[in-house]
Every structure is written in structure tokens, then in C-alpha cells.
Design brief:
It is a single chain. The chain is an all-alpha fold. It has a domain of 97 residues. The N and C termini lie far apart (64 Å).
């Protein structure tokens, strides 16, 4: 079947459901807001329990990662994402979900070639880009500090 790009575009438009942005955007904003509010609430709770601000922030990150992984494992995160869409991609919870989901899916292939090899299929490019960007930033910072300094 040979079709042109314009024919393919028309076929895609016909077969794709219309986006109901008036529904999806508020839901994403609301769900993302709940996740962020939970994070702020945890920071305040840990601070109230006697932790300094830096430790409370670190423990909050760990808690959010744990909850995201747990919710992914019990298939609750996917149900939340069906309603919240991009709102569930709040960086730390979305990243944890992106690591845990493939790990669960490929666990049946074994711990090394399944879980270990496929765990970073989705999150791997993010890690590579983040590390590469941090190296470039570090080099630029070093050069600027030598020139300024």
C-alpha cells in the first residue's frame, strides 16, 4: 500500500479521536496540582517532625518515588494517568513510573535480560540527556569561572 504523506495525514485525522482539551487540560492541571501539593505537604510534615529543610526535601523525593513505584506496581498509576494525562508527568513521579513500568512488563524475561535490560528503555534517554547537559554546563561554568576569576 503506497500512499502519499498528505493522504496519510488525512487518514490519520479521520481515524484519530478529537481531543477534548476543554476536559483534559483542567484534569491534567488538577492531578498535577494534587501531586505537587502532596509533595509540599510531605515537606511540611517532615519539617514538623524535626527535619531540616534540606533533609525534608530529600525524604519527600524518596517518598514520592516510592509511592509512584508502588502505584505503578498495583496498576493504580495508570488509572490516575488515564484521567490526569500529562499532569501525572510531574518530573519525579513520572520518571519513577517510566522506570518501573518496563521493569514490570519485562520481568518475565528474567532479572538480567528482562528487568535489568529493559528498565531504562523509556527513562534511559532522559538520563543520558541529563548527564550530557550537566557535563556541558559544568565545562561552560568552569571556563567562565576561569575567565572571570
Amino acid at each position: 500500500m503506497n500512499i502519499s504523506n498528505s493522504e496519510y495525514g488525512e487518514l490519520t485525522k479521520k481515524r484519530s479521536p478529537d481531543s477534548k482539551m476543554y476536559k483534559t487540560l483542567p484534569k491534567a492541571f488538577f492531578i498535577g496540582g494534587i501531586i505537587c501539593t502532596l509533595g509540599e505537604g510531605l515537606i511540611n510534615l517532615y519539617g514538623y517532625l524535626g527535619m531540616d529543610e534540606e533533609s525534608a526535601a530529600a525524604v519527600t523525593s524518596i517518598t514520592l518515588i516510592f509511592l509512584s513505584a508502588l502505584f505503578t506496581g498495583v496498576e493504580l498509576y495508570d488509572r490516575i494517568a488515564q484521567h490526569g494525562g500529562a499532569g501525572t508527568l510531574v518530573p519525579i513521579t513520572g520518571f519513577a513510573n517510566a522506570v518501573v513500568s518496563p521493569a514490570i512488563d519485562f520481568k518475565s524475561e528474567g532479572y538480567v535480560l528482562g528487568l535489568g535490560a529493559k528498565m531504562f528503555v523509556i527513562a534511559g534517554p532522559v538520563i543520558v540527556y541529563g548527564l550530557s547537559a550537566s557535563v556541558v554546563y559544568g565545562i561552560i561554568y568552569y571556563i567562565v569561572s576561569l575567565v572571570a576569576g
